[in-house]
Write a sequence for this structure.
C-alpha cells in the first residue's frame, strides 16, 4: 500500500511536473497575446486596466499549468478505485483508523478530501453520509480540512519544485503523511473529548473482486474532477484574485509620492538626454514618448525570446535608464 502511494506521487508530481515544461510555453504565448491587447505602460505608471489584466491572466494561468499533474493524479486514483484495491485499503486501514476513533469507511472521504493529494473537502464531507458510526462520521468531517485539497497542491508543488528538486516524490509523500497524522491526532482528541458520548457502530464492508479498471470509468472520473478544478479556477480563484488586486492597488500612492517619483523620472530623463546628445541614436529617443515605446519594446522582446535564442550572435542595441544614470550598450548579445 505504501508503495502504491509513493508510486502515485512519483508518476503524478514528478513526471507530471516535467510535462509542464511543454505546456507552459503555450500558456505564456497566450498570456503575451492578451498583454499585447492592453494599453502600454509609461515610464512611471501603468494603466490600471493593464495591471488588472496581467494580474488576472497570471493568476489563472499559474493554476492551469498544473493540469497535466492532476490528469495523471486523478487517473491513478480512478484506477485504484475501479480495480477494487480501494476497498482493500479501507480494510487495511480500519484497525489504524479505529485506534484514532475513526472508521474503515472513513478512507473514501479521506481519499476524496486529499489523503492522496488533490482532493476536495466538499465531496469528501458529502461522502461521509455512508458511515454508520456517528462518532466516526463527525470526526471525519471535522478532520477532512487538514488534508491536501486542490487549493493547496499548486502551492505545495511550487515549493517542492524549488527547494527539493532531487526528491520531489519523497517530499510530497512526506507532506501527505504528515497531514494524515495531524488529521488522525485531531480525530483522536475529538473522540476523547467532545465526541465521547456519540454512538459507534461496527465496520462492515463488501470486498469486491479484483478486476482490470474500465477505461471509460477512468476517463469519466478524470474528466469530472478536471472539470471541477476548472470551475474552481474560473470562479473562486478569479474572484479571490480580483479582491486581492483591489486590496493591493488601492488607495495607492498619495499625490505627494506621485509627484516625487514624477520629478525623479524627469530628472533621470534630462540626465540621459544630456549624455546622449552626441549619439547618432539621439533622434530615436529625444522625447518621453519614444523612451516609453523603446522600454515597452524591450520588455516585450525579453518575454518573447527564449534564453537559447540569444546565442545566435545577432546584434542588439539596448538603452538602460537606472536612477538617472545612462548606459549605452552596443553589440549586446
Amino acid at each position: 500500500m505504501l508503495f502504491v502511494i509513493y508510486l502515485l506521487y512519483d508518476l503524478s508530481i514528478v513526471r507530471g511536473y516535467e510535462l509542464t515544461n511543454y505546456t507552459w510555453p503555450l500558456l505564456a504565448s497566450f498570456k503575451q497575446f492578451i498583454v499585447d491587447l492592453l494599453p502600454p505602460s509609461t515610464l512611471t505608471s501603468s494603466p490600471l486596466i493593464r495591471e488588472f489584466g496581467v494580474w488576472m491572466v497570471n493568476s489563472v494561468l499559474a493554476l492551469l499549468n498544473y493540469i497535466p499533474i492532476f490528469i495523471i493524479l486523478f487517473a491513478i486514483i480512478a484506477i485504484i478505485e475501479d480495480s477494487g484495491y480501494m476497498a482493500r485499503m479501507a480494510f487495511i486501514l480500519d484497525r489504524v483508523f479505529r485506534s484514532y476513533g475513526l472508521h474503515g469507511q472513513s478512507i473514501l472521504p479521506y481519499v476524496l478530501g486529499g489523503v492522496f493529494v488533490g482532493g476536495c473537502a466538499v465531496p469528501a464531507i458529502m461522502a461521509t453520509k455512508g458511515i454508520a458510526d456517528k462518532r466516526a462520521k463527525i470526526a471525519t468531517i471535522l478532520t477532512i480540512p487538514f488534508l491536501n485539497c486542490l487549493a493547496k497542491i499548486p502551492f505545495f508543488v511550487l515549493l517542492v519544485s524549488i527547494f527539493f528538486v532531487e526528491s520531489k516524490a519523497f517530499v510530497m509523500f512526506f507532506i501527505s503523511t504528515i497531514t494524515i497524522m495531524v488529521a488522525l491526532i485531531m480525530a483522536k482528541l475529538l473522540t476523547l473529548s467532545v465526541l465521547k458520548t456519540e454512538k459507534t457502530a461496527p465496520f462492515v464492508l463488501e470486498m469486491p473482486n479484483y478486476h482490470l479498471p474500465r477505461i471509460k470509468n477512468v476517463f469519466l472520473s478524470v474528466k469530472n474532477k478536471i472539470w471541477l478544478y476548472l470551475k474552481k479556477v474560473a470562479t473562486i480563484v478569479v474572484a479571490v484574485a480580483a479582491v486581492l488586486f483591489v486590496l493591493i492597488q488601492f488607495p495607492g500612492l498619495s499625490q505627494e509620492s506621485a509627484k516625487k517619483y514624477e520629478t525623479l523620472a524627469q530628472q533621470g530623463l534630462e540626465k540621459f538626454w544630456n549624455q546622449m546628445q552626441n549619439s547618432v541614436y539621439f533622434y530615436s529617443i529625444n522625447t518621453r514618448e519614444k523612451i516609453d515605446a523603446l522600454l515597452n519594446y524591450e520588455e516585450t522582446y525579453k518575454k518573447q525570446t527564449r534564453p537559447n535564442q540569444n546565442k545566435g550572435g545577432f546584434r542588439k542595441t539596448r538603452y538602460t535608464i537606472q536612477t538617472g544614470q545612462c548606459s549605452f550598450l552596443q553589440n549586446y548579445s
Notes: The chain has twelve helices and two strands.
